[in-house]
Amino acid sequence: MKTILAAYSGALKGTGSSILSALQDLSVAVWPCRSKMEKHLQVISVLQWVLSFLVLGAACTVLLIYMFCTDCWLIAAMYTAWLIMDWNTPKQGGRRSSWVRNWTVWTYFRDYFPVRLIKTHNLLPNRNYIFGYHPHGIFCFGAFCNFGTEATGFSKKFPGIKPSLATLAGNFCMPVMRDYLMSGGICPVNKNSINYLLSRNGTGNAVVIVVGGAAESLQCAPGVNSVTLKNRKGFVRLALQKGADLVPVYSFGENDVYKQVFFEERTYWRYLQKRFQKILGFAPCLFHGCGLFFGDSCGIVPYGKPITTIVGEPITVPKIEDPTDEMVDLYHTMYIKSLQCLFDKYKTRCGLKESDVLYIQ
Question: Which residues cross the membrane (predicted)?
Answer without folding.
Answer: 46-68
